[in-house]
Amino acid sequence: MAMSLAQKILARASGKAVVEEGEIIWAKPDLVTVPEVSFPAYVKRLRDIGITKFAYPERIVVAIDHEVPVHSQAGAERNRLTRQLAESCRVGHFFDGEGITHPLVVERGLVSPGMFVVGADTHTSGIGGTGALAIPFGMEVTMPMARGDIWIRVPGTVRVQVNGVLPAGVGARDIVLAALKQIDEEMANYRVIEYVGDTIPTLSIPERMTIAGLSIDCGAETGIVPADAAAVRALRALGVSDAAILAGDSAAPVHHEIYIDANRLAPQVSIPPSPTQVRDVTELEAVRIDHAYIGSCASGSLVELQEAARLLDGRRVHPEVQLLIIPATRKIHEQAMQDGTLSILMRAGAQLAPSTCGPCFGGLAQLGAGEVRISTSTRNDRGRMGSPDANIYLASALTVAASALTGHITDVRTFLSSHG
Question: How many CB atoms lie within 10 A of CB 360?
Answer without folding.
Answer: 27
